[in-house]
Write a structure and sequence with these properties.
329 residues; six-stranded parallel sheet; 12 helices; elongated
C-alpha cells in the first residue's frame, strides 16, 4: 500500500497537521507524538512524496537554472556541461531542476516561475554587466547564486579563477620564447572577458614585456568582424594569437586554414577555454581546461546552503589545467 499523510493520520488517530509537523520536525508537538509517528512511518517504509514534503516544509524542492535566451549554438557545450553538473548536484540534495530562459531582453519566464512559487532558488549560468536577471533577483530576495564573479558586494557566486589561469598561460608561452601576442576576445560586458583580459596583461608584464594594446581586440563575436581582425593581426606578424574562448579560437583557425596560414609554423594559436568544439582539430589546440560540470555542481552546493539558512559563501575554483598541445610547438 502506498501510504499518504492522510492514511497515516487516520491509522494513528491524529490530524494531518500533526503528522506533517512530526515528519518535517517543525511546529509544536510532543516528543511522544513525534516518536510515535516516526516509528510508524519506519514500520511502513513511508517515503513522503514531493507534494507532501512541499506541504510539510513550505518548499517546492525545485531550483531554477537560468540560461540566456540569446545564447548561440556554439555556446551549448559549456551550458550543457553546467546543466549536467547542476542536475547531478540537485539530485544529491533531493531537488529537481527547472530550466528557465531569461536575459536582458526578456525575464518573463523567470518572473512567472518566481511569482508562481515554482522554485526555492536559482542558479544564474551567465554573469554579465548590468544584468536585468540579477537586478530582478535582488528585488525578489529569492536565494540565488551566479556562475561568474559579478564584482558586487553581497552577491553569492561561484567562479573559475580565470585571471590567474590566463596569467599562467601567458607566462608559459613567454617561457617558450614567444614575445609578440595578439588577443581576440568576445563580449566586453561579460565579466569573464574582463578577468581573462586582466590575466593576459598581468602575465605579459610580469615577464618584463610590454603589452601591445593595438593588438587587443574585444567584441570579436559580432558578425564578420573576426575575419578583418585576424587579417590585421597577420599583417603585424605576431608570434601567437590568443583567443578568449573556444568559439573564437575555432573560427580563427578556420579562417587561417582557409587562407593558407599554417598553425603553428606561420603563427601559433591558443584558447583560454577548452571544449569539445576544439577536441578534433589538427593541429590540436593549446588551451585552458576548466571543469564546467564541477562549476555547476558547486553553484548548487552554495545555493542549497542559502536555501537551508546556513552560512553560504562565494567560491573561487582554482583547479584548472594548461593543455600545451601542437598549436604552440
Amino acid at each position: 500500500m502506498n501510504y499518504t499523510i492522510d492514511d497515516i493520520a487516520k491509522a494513528l488517530g491524529l490530524s494531518k497537521t500533526t503528522v506533517s509537523r512530526a515528519i518535517s520536525g517543525k511546529g509544536r508537538i510532543s516528543e511522544q507524538t513525534r516518536q510515535r509517528v516516526a516509528d510508524f512511518i519506519k514500520e511502513i517504509n513511508y517515503t513522503p512524496s514531493a507534494a507532501a514534503r512541499s506541504l510539510a516544509t513550505s518548499k517546492t524542492f525545485n531550483i531554477g537554472l537560468i540560461f540566456p535566451q540569446d545564447s548561440t549554438l556554439d555556446e551549448m557545450p559549456y551550458f550543457q556541461d553546467v546543466m549536467v553538473g547542476v542536475c547531478e548536484a540537485a539530485l544529491d540534495h533531493d531537488y529537481d531542476v527547472l530550466n528557465i530562459l531569461a536575459d536582458n531582453n526578456d525575464i518573463h519566464a523567470l518572473d512567472r516561475a518566481i511569482t508562481n512559487r515554482k522554485v526555492d532558488g536559482v542558479v544564474v549560468s551567465r554573469c554579465i554587466k548590468g544584468s536585468r536577471v540579477i537586478e530582478y533577483l535582488k528585488q525578489k530576495k529569492l536565494p540565488y547564486v551566479v556562475l561568474g564573479n559579478p564584482l558586487e558586494e553581497g552577491i553569492l557566486y561561484v567562479d573559475n579563477d580565470n585571471k590567474n589561469a590566463a596569467r599562467r598561460m601567458m607566462e608559459g608561452l613567454i617561457d617558450q620564447h614567444m614575445s609578440k601576442f595578439a588577443l581576440i576576445g568576445g563580449n566586453e560586458n561579460l565579466f569573464v572577458t574582463q578577468s581573462r583580459l586582466e590575466g593576459y596583461i598581468e602575465g605579459i608584464t610580469k615577464r618584463g614585456l610590454e603589452v601591445n594594446e593595438n593588438m587587443i581586440f574585444l567584441n570579436a563575436h559580432r558578425g564578420e568582424r573576426l575575419n578583418s581582425i585576424v587579417s590585421i593581426i597577420l599583417e603585424n606578424e605576431v608570434d601567437c594569437i590568443v583567443c578568449m574562448d573556444d568559439v573564437l579560437c575555432n573560427n580563427t583557425l578556420l579562417f587561417l586554414q582557409t587562407n593558407g596560414v599554417a598553425v603553428p609554423k606561420d603563427v601559433k594559436l591558443v584558447s583560454y577555454y577548452d571544449s569539445k568544439l576544439l577536441s578534433n582539430h589538427k593541429p590540436s589546440i593549446t588551451s585552458l581546461y576548466f571543469d564546467s560540470k564541477y562549476l555547476g555542481a558547486q553553484g548548487v552546493d552554495v545555493l542549497m546552503s542559502e536555501i537551508d539558512g546556513k552560512v553560504a559563501q562565494s567560491r573561487l575554483l582554482t583547479d584548472f589545467n594548461i593543455q600545451m598541445r601542437e598549436s604552440t610547438r
